[in-house]
Amino acid sequence: MHHYFTIDCGEVLLRAFRVEDVDAIYELTSQPEVYEFLPDWRSTREQRLNWVTNYEIPANKAFLSALPNIIGQNYLMLGIILKETGEFIGFCNTGIKEELCEPNREIAYAMSKHYRNRGYTTQAVQGLIQFLFEQTNVEQVNTIVQLQNVSSTKVIEKCGFQYKENIEIDELMYAHYTLLKEDWQKDKVN
Predict the structure, then answer these.
(1) Residue 102 lies in domain
(2) How many domains does the chain have?
């Protein structure tokens, strides 16, 4: 039996992508509710299989083998797994967002339309933040959200991110939020 990297987040786990996730990722990223806000994730099943097999799984291995010094490591791609059923219901990833000024480590996520408004996304994002701040040398994380994405804005504000500025990327307007490790640690104590 394979042991995959996981982070326990309460009702959900974050687990490193595996080839068996391709259909679930493809289905998720084919939902209009997801690709409206993450258009780069839309793909054919064949593209998704190629990306997971040849890019995302190797990137995860490189990222994890570099711990705790992840400077220079790009992506960690994690499925959001519902503990109760083992179902792949979303993803929560971290990577370098080239369009942002350094430090430009970003957190991005998506949740299946069938599992929204249950707190799972917030649990997953909080779990990834905790991992990055406690197990790596990351001092700041970023996230960007399209201005009309009210649900995502609520998640990141619950997770302690602070609004920084509006930015334009590929002709779309985003709100840019940051979270500093020192602020996260203070909030954790209070």
Answers:
(1) 6-189
(2) 1
